[in-house]
Design brief:
Blueprint lengths: L4 H6 L6 H32 L5 H6 L5 H21 L3 H22 L3 H21 L6 H5 L4
Helix pairs in contact: 2-4, 4-5, 5-6
Length: 149
């Protein structure tokens, strides 16, 4: 997405136009890979013990926990891998966003931590919303396959 001449004329420092136009896609890729790797890291403990979160998911009203706990583990771990490499980027990011919105509810309301407890989850949900809508860009497996959702 190149900056148009009208955008260039609106920049405070027009000389930065080449920097903005040449780096936006790689920076977007860095954000996607970082978010994916951190999601994998967060999900690693859950995938190692996929039934370990049964009590937590049931305390949020997700019954049966024996179903939801492994689904949570798989969404975080495998979804993070998919986001990292940019394969099925939109559905994997959407699933991650849903998980994070549940954590917003958990920290903000169930544990009554308010914004202080939910702010990281809100930020992460927004990041995954971006990739759910945007997709993986040209630096993704989706692009290499020539297919995307």
């Amino acid at each position: 997405m190149a900056l148009h001449s009208t955008t260039r004329s609106r920049l405070f420092i027009p000389a930065l136009t080449p920097v903005y136009t040449s780096t936006h896609e790689i920076v977007e890729t860095i954000l996607r890979v970082t978010a994916g790797v951190l999601l994998v890291t967060h999900g690693f403990g859950k995938i190692s013990n996929p039934f370990g979160a049964i009590g937590m998911v049931e305390s949020l009203g997700f019954y049966p926990g024996v179903f939801w706990s492994p689904l949570l583990a798989a969404t975080e771990f495998f979804g993070g891998i998919l986001v990292t490499i940019g394969l099925f980027t939109r559905p994997a990011s959407f699933a991650a966003m849903i998980v994070l919105l549940v954590t917003v509810y958990f920290h903000g309301i169930v544990r009554a931590e308010g914004l202080a407890g939910a702010e990281k989850s809100i930020l992460w949900a927004a990041i995954f919303l971006f990739f759910a809508l945007r997709g993986g860009n040209s630096h993704s497996v989706d692009a290499r396959l020539g297919k995307t959702f």
